[in-house]
Protein backbone atom coordinates (compact mmCIF):
# COMPACT_ATOMS: atom_id res chain seq x y z
CA UNK A 1 0.00 0.00 0.00
CA UNK A 2 1.98 2.95 -1.33
CA UNK A 3 1.35 6.28 0.41
CA UNK A 4 1.02 9.44 -1.67
CA UNK A 5 1.36 13.11 -0.86
CA UNK A 6 0.26 16.20 -2.77
CA UNK A 7 1.97 19.45 -1.79
CA UNK A 8 0.04 22.67 -2.37
CA UNK A 9 1.44 26.17 -1.93
CA UNK A 10 -1.39 28.47 -0.89
CA UNK A 11 -1.70 32.20 -1.51
CA UNK A 12 -2.42 32.80 2.17
CA UNK A 13 -2.46 30.77 5.42
CA UNK A 14 -5.29 28.26 5.76
CA UNK A 15 -7.46 27.97 8.86
CA UNK A 16 -7.28 24.27 9.86
CA UNK A 17 -10.47 24.36 11.96
CA UNK A 18 -12.43 25.79 9.03
CA UNK A 19 -11.09 23.08 6.71
CA UNK A 20 -12.03 20.34 9.19
CA UNK A 21 -15.47 21.88 9.70
CA UNK A 22 -16.05 21.95 5.92
CA UNK A 23 -15.04 18.29 5.68
CA UNK A 24 -17.52 17.35 8.42
CA UNK A 25 -20.34 18.92 6.40
CA UNK A 26 -19.71 16.77 3.29
CA UNK A 27 -18.19 13.71 5.01
CA UNK A 28 -20.63 13.18 7.84
CA UNK A 29 -19.86 9.45 8.22
CA UNK A 30 -16.13 10.02 8.70
CA UNK A 31 -14.19 10.38 11.94
CA UNK A 32 -12.57 13.81 12.27
CA UNK A 33 -9.73 14.95 14.50
CA UNK A 34 -7.11 17.69 14.60
CA UNK A 35 -3.83 18.24 16.45
CA UNK A 36 -2.17 21.64 16.48
CA UNK A 37 1.55 21.66 17.29
CA UNK A 38 1.80 25.45 17.26
CA UNK A 39 0.04 28.45 15.70
CA UNK A 40 1.30 27.54 12.21
CA UNK A 41 1.54 23.74 12.14
CA UNK A 42 -1.51 21.44 12.36
CA UNK A 43 -2.25 17.83 11.48
CA UNK A 44 -5.84 16.86 10.72
CA UNK A 45 -7.67 13.82 9.41
CA UNK A 46 -11.04 12.94 7.94
CA UNK A 47 -11.01 9.14 8.00
CA UNK A 48 -13.63 6.44 7.42
CA UNK A 49 -11.68 3.68 9.13
CA UNK A 50 -12.06 2.66 12.76
CA UNK A 51 -9.09 0.78 14.20
CA UNK A 52 -11.20 -0.54 17.08
CA UNK A 53 -13.76 0.27 19.73
CA UNK A 54 -13.46 -1.53 23.07
CA UNK A 55 -15.97 -1.68 25.93
CA UNK A 56 -14.63 -3.71 28.82
CA UNK A 57 -13.53 -7.00 27.17
CA UNK A 58 -15.62 -6.60 24.03
CA UNK A 59 -13.66 -5.30 21.05
CA UNK A 60 -15.19 -4.21 17.74
CA UNK A 61 -13.08 -3.70 14.64
CA UNK A 62 -13.56 -4.00 10.89
CA UNK A 63 -12.00 -5.03 7.62
CA UNK A 64 -12.50 -2.10 5.25
CA UNK A 65 -11.04 -3.21 1.91
CA UNK A 66 -12.48 -3.38 -1.57
CA UNK A 67 -13.54 -0.22 -3.36
CA UNK A 68 -15.78 1.02 -6.15
CA UNK A 69 -17.06 4.49 -7.03
CA UNK A 70 -20.28 5.83 -5.57
CA UNK A 71 -22.86 7.74 -7.60
CA UNK A 72 -25.78 10.10 -7.07
CA UNK A 73 -27.66 7.94 -9.58
CA UNK A 74 -29.48 5.28 -7.55
CA UNK A 75 -29.31 2.65 -10.29
CA UNK A 76 -25.59 3.18 -10.92
CA UNK A 77 -24.91 3.08 -7.18
CA UNK A 78 -26.79 -0.20 -6.77
CA UNK A 79 -25.10 -1.77 -9.80
CA UNK A 80 -21.69 -0.80 -8.42
CA UNK A 81 -22.61 -2.17 -4.99
CA UNK A 82 -23.76 -5.45 -6.49
CA UNK A 83 -20.56 -5.71 -8.50
CA UNK A 84 -18.43 -5.07 -5.40
CA UNK A 85 -20.30 -7.70 -3.40
CA UNK A 86 -19.65 -10.33 -6.08
CA UNK A 87 -16.21 -9.39 -7.39
CA UNK A 88 -13.69 -12.12 -6.56
CA UNK A 89 -10.67 -9.80 -6.40
CA UNK A 90 -12.23 -7.34 -3.93
CA UNK A 91 -13.73 -10.12 -1.82
CA UNK A 92 -10.33 -11.81 -1.66
CA UNK A 93 -8.60 -8.60 -0.59
CA UNK A 94 -11.19 -8.03 2.12
CA UNK A 95 -10.80 -11.57 3.43
CA UNK A 96 -7.02 -11.12 3.55
CA UNK A 97 -7.55 -8.17 5.91
CA UNK A 98 -10.03 -10.22 7.98
CA UNK A 99 -7.55 -13.08 8.27
CA UNK A 100 -4.76 -10.70 9.26
CA UNK A 101 -6.85 -9.10 12.02
CA UNK A 102 -7.97 -12.46 13.38
CA UNK A 103 -4.40 -13.77 13.43
CA UNK A 104 -3.18 -10.72 15.30
CA UNK A 105 -5.84 -11.00 17.98
CA UNK A 106 -6.30 -14.75 18.41
CA UNK A 107 -3.78 -15.14 21.30
CA UNK A 108 -5.79 -12.71 23.39
CA UNK A 109 -9.29 -13.73 22.38
CA UNK A 110 -11.90 -16.04 23.83
CA UNK A 111 -14.12 -15.71 20.78
CA UNK A 112 -13.97 -14.03 17.35
CA UNK A 113 -17.08 -13.43 15.22
CA UNK A 114 -16.93 -12.11 11.65
CA UNK A 115 -20.05 -10.70 10.04
CA UNK A 116 -21.10 -11.29 6.42
CA UNK A 117 -19.89 -8.55 4.05
CA UNK A 118 -21.80 -5.33 3.62
CA UNK A 119 -21.29 -2.07 1.77
CA UNK A 120 -20.45 1.23 3.43
CA UNK A 121 -21.43 4.23 1.29
CA UNK A 122 -19.16 7.25 1.42
CA UNK A 123 -19.48 10.48 -0.52
CA UNK A 124 -17.47 9.43 -3.57
CA UNK A 125 -16.72 5.75 -3.07
CA UNK A 126 -18.15 2.54 -1.67
CA UNK A 127 -16.15 0.15 0.51
CA UNK A 128 -16.59 -3.53 1.18
CA UNK A 129 -16.70 -4.13 4.93
CA UNK A 130 -16.80 -7.02 7.36
CA UNK A 131 -17.39 -6.29 11.04
CA UNK A 132 -15.33 -8.24 13.57
CA UNK A 133 -16.37 -8.74 17.20
CA UNK A 134 -13.80 -10.10 19.63
CA UNK A 135 -14.18 -11.14 23.26
CA UNK A 136 -10.78 -10.48 24.83
CA UNK A 137 -9.10 -12.41 27.61
CA UNK A 138 -7.37 -9.23 28.81
CA UNK A 139 -8.74 -5.74 28.09
CA UNK A 140 -5.41 -4.01 27.49
CA UNK A 141 -5.39 -1.07 25.06
CA UNK A 142 -1.61 -1.08 24.82
CA UNK A 143 -1.80 -4.72 23.73
CA UNK A 144 -4.61 -4.02 21.23
CA UNK A 145 -2.76 -1.08 19.70
CA UNK A 146 0.42 -3.11 19.47
CA UNK A 147 -1.37 -6.00 17.76
CA UNK A 148 -3.50 -4.01 15.32
CA UNK A 149 -1.02 -1.37 14.14
CA UNK A 150 -0.18 -0.88 11.36
CA UNK A 151 -3.25 -2.27 9.65
CA UNK A 152 -3.04 -4.45 6.57
CA UNK A 153 -4.94 -1.72 4.71
CA UNK A 154 -1.98 0.68 5.08
CA UNK A 155 0.98 -1.70 5.40
CA UNK A 156 -0.01 -4.73 3.34
CA UNK A 157 0.32 -8.47 3.90
CA UNK A 158 2.37 -10.44 4.65
CA UNK A 159 3.56 -7.86 7.15
CA UNK A 160 7.35 -8.18 7.09
CA UNK A 161 7.81 -8.43 3.33
CA UNK A 162 5.32 -5.60 2.79
CA UNK A 163 7.17 -3.35 5.25
CA UNK A 164 10.44 -4.06 3.49
CA UNK A 165 8.89 -3.25 0.11
CA UNK A 166 7.53 0.06 1.43
CA UNK A 167 10.89 0.99 2.93
CA UNK A 168 12.55 0.40 -0.43
CA UNK A 169 9.92 1.99 -2.67
CA UNK A 170 7.94 4.63 -0.79
CA UNK A 171 9.38 8.05 -1.49
CA UNK A 172 7.85 10.05 1.38
CA UNK A 173 7.99 10.10 5.17
CA UNK A 174 4.59 9.04 6.52
CA UNK A 175 4.94 10.98 9.77
CA UNK A 176 1.51 10.83 11.44
CA UNK A 177 -0.15 9.41 8.33
CA UNK A 178 -1.50 5.85 8.85
CA UNK A 179 -1.05 6.16 12.59
CA UNK A 180 -3.88 6.14 15.12
CA UNK A 181 -5.80 8.70 17.12
CA UNK A 182 -8.47 8.24 19.74
CA UNK A 183 -9.22 8.12 23.44
CA UNK A 184 -8.83 5.51 26.13
CA UNK A 185 -10.14 4.79 29.60
CA UNK A 186 -10.37 1.78 31.86
CA UNK A 187 -13.87 0.85 30.69
CA UNK A 188 -13.84 1.82 27.02
CA UNK A 189 -11.58 3.10 24.26
CA UNK A 190 -11.79 3.96 20.59
CA UNK A 191 -9.14 4.58 17.95
CA UNK A 192 -9.25 5.40 14.25
CA UNK A 193 -6.66 5.17 11.47
CA UNK A 194 -5.37 8.55 10.30
CA UNK A 195 -6.15 8.37 6.58
CA UNK A 196 -7.27 11.16 4.22
CA UNK A 197 -5.20 13.56 6.26
CA UNK A 198 -3.14 16.71 5.87
CA UNK A 199 -0.31 18.67 7.41
CA UNK A 200 -0.94 22.41 7.34
CA UNK A 201 2.09 24.61 7.94
CA UNK A 202 1.16 28.27 7.53
CA UNK A 203 0.54 28.62 3.76
CA UNK A 204 1.66 25.09 2.83
CA UNK A 205 -0.71 22.11 2.63
CA UNK A 206 0.59 18.53 2.40
CA UNK A 207 -2.38 16.27 1.63
CA UNK A 208 -2.22 12.48 1.94
CA UNK A 209 -5.24 10.51 0.66
CA UNK A 210 -5.91 6.79 1.03
CA UNK A 211 -2.98 4.54 0.03
CA UNK A 212 -2.65 3.00 -3.42
CA UNK A 213 -3.04 -0.80 -3.51
CA UNK A 214 -0.25 -2.72 -5.20
CA UNK A 215 -0.11 -6.45 -5.78
CA UNK A 216 3.50 -7.66 -5.46
Molecular structure report:
- The structure is a single chain.
- It contains six helices and twelve strands.
- The chain is an alpha+beta fold.
- Strands 4, 5, 6, 7, 8, 9 and 10 form a seven-stranded antiparallel beta sheet that branches. A five-stranded antiparallel beta sheet has the order 1-12-11-3-2, with helices on one face.
- It has helices at residues 16-26, 74-86, 88-105, 141-148, 152-155, 159-169; strands spanning 6-9, 31-36, 41-47, 50-55, 58-69, 109-114, 118-121, 125-136, 180-184, 188-193, 197-201, 204-208.
- The model has no long low-confidence stretch (mean pLDDT 92).
- A hairpin with a 2-residue loop joins β4 (50-55) and β5 (58-69).
Label this structure with key terms.
12 strands; seven-stranded antiparallel β-sheet; 6 helices; 216 residues; globular; alpha+beta
Mean pLDDT: 92
Q: Categorize the overall geometry.
A: globular
For the biggest sheet, the summary is: 7 strands, antiparallel
Q: Strand portion, in percent?
A: 35-45%
How many helices? 6
- Number of E strands: 12
Helix and strand string, N-terminal first? EHEEEEHHEEEHHHEEEE
Radius of gyration: 18 Å
Quickly give the structural class.
Answer: alpha+beta
Low-confidence stretches: none
CATH structural fold name of the domain at 49-194: Anthranilate synthase
Q: Identify the CATH class of the domain at 49-194.
A: Alpha Beta
CATH hierarchy: architecture of the domain at 49-194 = 4-Layer Sandwich
Q: How far apart are the first and last residues' alpha carbons, in Å?
A: 10 Å
Helix percentage = 25-40%
CATH superfamily of the domain at 49-194: Anthranilate synthase
